[in-house]
Amino acid sequence: MPGHAQTEAIAQLVARYLAAHPEASDTLDGIARWWLDRQRFDDAKPDVLRALEALERRGVVERRRLANGLTLFRRARH
Q1: What is the pTM of this model?
Q2: pLDDT at 1 over 80
Q3: In terms of residue numbers, what domain contains 16?
Q4: Which neighbouring-strand residues pair with 65?
Q5: Are 17 and 38 in contact (CB under 8 A)?
Q6: Angle between helices 36-57 and 4-20 (to 10 degrees)
Q7: Which residues, other chains included, contact 34 with Cβ-Cβ below 8 Å and sequence gap of 6+?
């Protein structure tokens, strides 16, 4: 069935968003624009961190800890 896998993936994103935000409600446009983007963002963070750590090990990026506790990643300066 064409599109079934994509429909199920979106259903899972919406369900995870609702689990994290049980009082949420929105229009179709709002859900497509904000909920799905936010859930994809949250889902991607662990993968992005692993990628940055791999690049750090290779000497491509370096991390810098700010006084306020935030960590910045930037091109490694040799």
Answers
A1: 0.68
A2: no
A3: 4-75
A4: 71
A5: yes
A6: 90
A7: 26
Q: In the predicted model, is pLDDT for residue 2 greater than 70?
A: no
57 secondary structure, DSSP code: H
Do the strands 61-65 and 71-75 form a parallel or antiparallel pair, or are they unpaired? antiparallel
**Structural domain total, the chain:** 1
Distance CA 7, CA 29 (A): 16
Helix (H, G, I), strand (E, B) or coil at 38: helix
The residue length of the chain stands at 78
pLDDT in tens, 13-70: 999 999 999 999 999 999 999 999 999 999 999 999 999 999 999 999 999 999 999 9
User: Is 3 a residue whose pLDDT tops 90?
Assistant: no
Joined tokens for residue 24: 């949420």
